Amino acid sequence: MSTTGDTEAYVAGLKVTELREELKKLNQPLHGNKAALGQRLREALEEKKRGEAENQDGEEEEEEEEEEEESEAVTEDEVGKEGEVAGGTAAEEQEEQNMADEPEAVTEKPPADGEEDTTGSGDAVKQEEENEQEEENEQDAETAQEAAEASEAAGAEVKEEQDSEAMAEVKQEQDSEAKADDEQATHERVEEGDEVVVEDEVGGETEEEAKEGKDNTMDTTADSTTESASVAGTGGGEKEERKRPREDDDRRKDSRDRHERPDPTKAPDPEDPSDDFSEESVSTLVQGEGKFQPPDGSTITLDNFNSDLYFKISPDGVTGHGLSQQGFAYLWAAAKATWGARGGKVCYEVKILEYITVVDLADTEEHPNALRVGWSTGDSGLDLGEAPLSYGYGCTGKAVVNNQYIEYGEPYGDGDVITCLLDLESSPPSISFARNGNHLGIAFTLEEDKVKGQCFFPHISVKNVMVRMNFCEPLYRPLPEGFEEYLPLQGANGNHKQRGMVGPRDIGDCEVVMMVGLPACGKTTWASKHAREFPQKRYTILGTNQIMDKMKVSGLARRTNYHGRWEMLIKKATDILNRLLVMAGKIPRNYIIDQTNVYAKAQYRKMGYFEGFVRKAVVVIPPHHELRKRTAMRNKEMGDPVPEDALNAMRGLLNSG
């Protein structure tokens, strides 16, 4: 290696182990990657060549000096011979004098075999040995680390082959959590100690893109108070566990017996639709649904934005009914009017056109056809009579507010006309009803301080009943005697009317939020709280809990009034929800999907219905002790614990990362 180019070529051809061997020969450090080792070796070799060149130059100079000294010595000898005789005596005397003046020489005894050399040379040798030992230790540590990394990589590869779909989903969730930890943006809590991760996405993402890990642009600007990616504070133990190095987590998981854990990719998803479910059947079921749009003017109609997804409004805008096939016969369907009253004395009419015959209901169903009419405020929800400012009169002859029932009036049914009267002018304000023109008395006396400034909307809730609304003259039935001054809402003073919230016209202006988490982790609590905090978005929450609420009988949970197999009704509710998801993707609104949604396949399927929406995911992870407590409370209340195999599969999907 006579040139720099030769050195470069030589070093470039060496492997890491060979680089370290060469460096060790040159007493150089052995730590670092291949690039660092190569650079160090090149420098050492160049330094070695420079040293050799300097040594060669020094040897040549020494030879020249020796030759000059020899030449001088010969000359001196010749001169000395010439003066030897004349100056012999004087030379001898001078030599004796010089010897007398020289100090006595000290002879240093070399160390015997086995004795320690205490000179500087011995210290240097010792230091060199210590350096070599330290470098060998470093090399051993690096070799062990490389072996550990290779082992972990091999383990990770095996795990990925065994559970590729689960790992892909968990990786996506881990990326969301890492992003939330880095940004430390706005925090939201389900309860103290729960962790919530909000992940935003804009535009449509195909299943193939999601599996390949292609991320769409994230929307972190909308509603920055709660919608930006965030992680709520967690309990100390949970936080420490989440910050534990990934290597420790992998080793801990690898130590478990995989045969005792279910394969998350093979376990059945309890939220999957039945075999007879198809999107085509839903399209046939809701054919024509969503085409009606309330007019922009002052004409009052039923409002397809402030109504249940499965409440069908006819093109005339005032005729409607709920779906009654494929399980929907069990559900109440409600709608409000586009305009409400905030003053004066106003009224509207409801004509019962038909009691729809259904075959899906069990023979034990006490009220297969039912109806409730009344008034409610815009933010009181669609369940008429189940909120403080929601007042209803049912076909069984009962009045209800805030889920409190009282005997009132008389029963009514097919062919009857019910007049709903609202007096916001008198003191105190009141609500009353008339059946076929006969006044039934005051149903509700309102508290002035609670209704002041409120707007009350016509509100109906039906179950397998078709009705037609009348908001204007002429009326179907004359007003009761003494109530002639009441005006149909359409003809009321403009100052006494108010337009309800107008929904979005395009799905591009809407968003869908998918909840993700184990049963009883707090998803429903988060969803309800979030919907209350953003009333301007008027979220429609889609979940089996909401479906079961729509199945109530006389305000009581369906469980206490159902005589068939409970698990069959739960499955029916799940099928209804899956049909609603298909419908929702075609109707512009803001949605929250309140299910476990831990299976990647289910996530792709459900979010696929909402192409064009702003799509987001919210992962709720409470501390383990809190989850156990909530699960016990849920099982005690519901009496139908989630099957253990399904629950373990869900845990595996959430915890395998």
From TrEMBL:
As for subcellular location, the record says: Nucleus
Cite a single GO BP annotation.
alternative mRNA splicing, via spliceosome
UniProt superkingdom: Eukaryota
Where does the SAP domain lie? 11-45
Q: Which regions span the lipid bilayer?
A: none
Q: Where in this chain does the record put each B30.2/SPRY domain?
A: 280-476
Molecular function GO terms recorded: RNA binding
Q: Basic and acidic residues bias located where?
A: 40-53, 168-190, 237-269
**Low complexity biased stretches:** 144-156, 218-232
Q: Residue ranges of region Disordered?
A: 25-299
Q: Which InterPro entries match?
A: B30.2/SPRY, B30.2/SPRY_sf, ConA-like_dom_sf, P-loop_NTPase, SAP_dom, SAP_dom_sf, SPRY_dom, SPRY_hnRNP_U
Instruction: Tell me which GO cellular component terms the UniProt record holds.
Output: nucleus; ribonucleoprotein complex
Major subcellular site: nucleus
What are the entry keywords?
Methylation, Nucleus, Phosphoprotein, Ribonucleoprotein
**Compositionally biased intervals (Acidic residues):** 54-77, 92-105, 129-143, 191-210, 270-279
Protein name stated in the entry: Heterogeneous nuclear ribonucleoprotein U-like protein 1
Q: What is the lineage of its organism?
A: Eukaryota, Metazoa, Porifera, Demospongiae, Heteroscleromorpha
